Amino acid sequence: GVLVRQAGLANARAAWASTFQLRATDVHLSLAQVGFDVFTGEWVRALGTGGHLVLCPWLTLFDPPALYALLEQHRVTVVEFVPAIVRGMLDYGEEKRLKLTHVRLLIVGSDAWQIDEHRRAQSLLLRGRVVDTYGLTEGTVDSTCFDREPAEWPGKGPTPIGAELPGHR
Prior knowledge:
Elements: H1 6-19, E1 27-30, H2 37-47, E2 52-55, H3 64-73, E3 78-81, H4 83-96, E4 105-108, H5 115-124, E5 129-134, E6 144-146, E7 163-164
Parallel strand pairs: 1-2, 1-3, 3-4, 4-5
Antiparallel strand pairs: 5-6, 6-7
Helix pairs in contact: 3-4, 4-5
């Protein structure tokens, strides 16, 4: 386990709120297990900004049709996925010609993510943006954020690590 100080968590909440323009009307989907630091990010982003938090049943996470339905049913506006889950969503969404109609912020983190995948994910959203975050548990979940239009980055390869979040260096 890792001890995370309250001040670090408060700093992370403030960084997420300003960088992601979080609002009290947002509906966040929580996908992570309680012991994973991403879960901390999910509930702090949601409840720390006055939003709503919807818990995703574990098996739904691995079932793209059910996950799409859950996102639409609850009109989710903010969600964080690991790349493996996004890849399944991308394949299913492209096959069925679906869009995530309510998602305004799709965060991808916790593993390597490719520029072409970033582009595909952006095309999956009806509106909104895709960001790639990186951080260590010891640094209170996220430290950096890649938040650029995919067209600005030619070619293939991993997404850049991005810029530090406010309050990080």
